[in-house]
């Protein structure tokens, strides 16, 4: 595990490498090395370069990057302040770097981003058939809101192998110390 993590934000020049990184973390054989794989749930990619450009162009949005030694990309996380709500999506951690604190580092950085942008609640959606991922976020203080959302049908985010629903998880934000 790297002794320290470095936080930065993605720019348009990062999009090609970020698309490859996110897709390797979520889909395909390389993702199966980690516990957060979605390869058993989807065919196709997780996101394409145009989708990443769209995310970067949203108002009050950023893609946070966690790098380790020699600027090696270990994780990424999309954040967007929407009024008083911080919306989190697409936390990706390199399969070989999972269980080393990268996800927690990015989650804390995301919550700090929300606090700095006047957000009082952090919100995310998680695929309902991912109990291990839901449990991870619950250990980080997120709670099920009781709300659900349909899974997007746009094939550029992958083709579900079964019907899927998203659970909405929320957490009140406090200043990160």
TrEMBL record:
<dbReference type="InterPro" id="IPR000182">
    <property type="entry name" value="GNAT_dom"/>
</dbReference>
<dbReference type="InterPro" id="IPR050832">
    <property type="entry name" value="Bact_Acetyltransf"/>
</dbReference>
<keyword id="KW-0012">Acyltransferase</keyword>
<feature type="domain" description="N-acetyltransferase">
    <location>
        <begin position="5"/>
        <end position="174"/>
    </location>
</feature>
<protein>
    <submittedName>
        <fullName>GNAT family N-acetyltransferase</fullName>
    </submittedName>
</protein>
<dbReference type="InterPro" id="IPR016181">
    <property type="entry name" value="Acyl_CoA_acyltransferase"/>
</dbReference>
<dbReference type="Pfam" id="PF00583">
    <property type="entry name" value="Acetyltransf_1"/>
</dbReference>
<dbReference type="GO" id="GO:0016747">
    <property type="term" value="F:acyltransferase activity, transferring groups other than amino-acyl groups"/>
</dbReference>
<keyword id="KW-0808">Transferase</keyword>
